[in-house]
Amino acid sequence: MKIAYAVLEKINHDYVLPSIQREFVWLKNKNEQKIEKLFDSILQEYPFGLVLTWEFHKEDCEKIHYEVYKFAQDYDAENPHNELANTNGYRTLYLVLDGQQRLTALNLGLKGHYIKKKRLQKLYLNLLSDIEDSRDNDYNFKYEFCFFENPPNADNQLWIEVGKVLDFHNKITEDFKEYFDNKIREKTSDGEKIKKAKTILGQLHKRICSDDALLISAFSGDDEKALNVFVRTNDGGVKLEKADLLLSYMQASKKIFLPRGAKKEVFEFVDILNKVDVHKPSYNFSKDDILKAALVISGLEVQYKLKNFNETNLDVISERWESIKKYIALTVKLIAQYGFSSKNIISKNALIPIAYYLFFKNISSDFVASHDERDLEIKNEIIKWLVISQLTKAFGASSDTTLKNMRNSINEGKSFKEINLSKNIDKDEVKKWIERESYNTKYTHLILLLTSNNKYWDACHLDHIYPISGFDDAFYARMGFNEEKIISYNSKANSIVNLHLLNPSVNILKSDNDFVDWKSNQSKEFLDSSLIPSDIDLDFSNFEEFFEKRKVKMIDKVYNALI
Question: Of the candidates 76, 439, 504, 527, which lies 20 to 30 Å from 238 by C-alpha distance?
Answer without folding.
Answer: 76
